[in-house]
Amino acid sequence: xxxxxxxxxxxxxxxxxxxxxxxxxxxxxxxxxxxxxxxxxxxxxxxxxxxxxxxxxxxxxxxxxxxxxxxxxxxxxxxxxxxxxxxxxxxxxxxxxxxxxxxxxxxxxxxxxxxxxxxxxxxxxxxxxxxxxxxxxxxx
Length: 140
What we know:
By secondary structure, the chain is mostly helical. The chain has helices spanning 2-28, 33-49, 59-64, 78-119, 124-128, 130-139.
């Protein structure tokens, strides 16, 4: 979406530039000779200093899918393939490790509760009795 807006802005800027150039061209015949020569020299200087587009990457090749390939001269080699897939493996391994640690913590907490219930003086059925809960609230 941002690229299409940028592309539209570039088109509008080009149209504005062409319109301005046509107005300047029409009025160029009315200028004195020394002014037109100074403008011609300035134009050549500006063209020599302008930024040239990089030939290696273009927006059109990125959209069509030719910017990155999995092989060939311009694409990624086998080391590049491993480097691009390695973060995915690290992420999956990290998620599996976090899941196993949480399962172990949950099992440890449940085991502590079971040990506390089984080693207590009261039978486990007393904790399920609603009268016992009322007793605890009034006793404490």
